[in-house]
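Appendix B. One record, verbatim.
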Amino acid sequence: MQSSGGLSGAFVALRVNGVLMSFLDALRSLAEQVADSVRLIIKGVSILVDIALMIDRVCGEA
């Protein structure tokens, strides 16, 4: 008697594993892109705050 699943079950498991790994890799890549975008936003806000403080100092001295 032949066991159900057998070799085809192993191929299905490998395929599911491959799809899952691809999904996790795409998710990791997306997380890195979001982190990079957040860093840029924070840097931009920091520069704007610095400019506002410089303007305040210059206008306050006049």
